[in-house]
Specification:
The chain is an alpha/beta fold. It has 13 helices and twelve strands. The strands form two sheets. Strands 2-1-3-4-5-11 form a six-stranded parallel sheet, covered by helices on one side. Strands 7-6-8-9-10-12 form a six-stranded mixed sheet, with helices on both faces.
Length: about 325
Amino acid sequence: MATIKDIAEKAGVSQATVSRVLNQDQNLSVSDATRKLIFETAEKLHYQKKDRKNNPLQSKRYRIAILEWVTEEEELEDLYYYSIRVGIEKQAQELGHEIFRVFNLEDWGPLEKADGIIALGKFSPETIRQLESYQKRLVFVDSNTLVYGHTCVMTDFETSVYQALAYLIESGHNQIGLLVGQETTADNRPLQTDPRYMSFKHYLEEKELYQPDYIRVGHFSSDSGYDMMKELIDELGNRLPSAFFMASDALAVGALRALQEASIPVPDRVSLISFNDTSIAKHVYPPLSTVTVYTEEMGKQAIHSLLQDLQRGDSGIPTMHTLATRLTIRESTR
């Protein structure tokens, strides 16, 4: 029977690399070509993994709860958190773990039965302390919780905003506006200014292109995007910026509707770049250029971080996993 050592010698890599690849270690930095070579070599040698029952760490099935800071209705309004949740559920199910979810404003009683909790969204210090009282392993997604001693998974907001603005400026746009939402925590406590707003302001101030009159802050919804863009159209008239960065796809969809009602062509008069790249971004007209956020990968990383804590039996050193984004250009920009 083939061993890990046999595969390593045949593939020309270390035994440790073979072991980590075959065990789907997501933290291993290895090329896709090497990963493919290892799997193909294992198949050629008819390698079979040892029975999972010999490894209690791998054979244990966990009950994992997803706690969402939004209601089920709010989740459907902006598909960003829906996409992350689906990524979490898909990865948990593929690994053979039981998964269930609890939305904001619902009874938290089921959390008592969970082995670990993935908290999805924005939570106040008070809510985090309440979650800690359940004495479960905790991982947060889309919140920087290192200061509270908890591992978290984040998106690289700063770089993504800088890339979008750089693209617009290189395309000849020197008047750039922003539509952004002001979020609150799950228990309705105000959050600090959105990091996309701060990055937008910092980047354009350095370029001496920042114009406060071109900024509107509302809610992360299509209705709010519509209202804010309509207000800007009415107030600025011909002074309306030639480009806008939208802090979410939902905001962009509403803004696009307001522009179309005012017979302002996109992208001939106004270019738009949104954020998240949820499914709706591709299905409006024109299709939205957007910052693609790897929501499914965020979900996968949350699962792996939680499982590592559960398998170790302690929370270890809290870490922040920051995922890169990609600027996806479609027909809403020129």
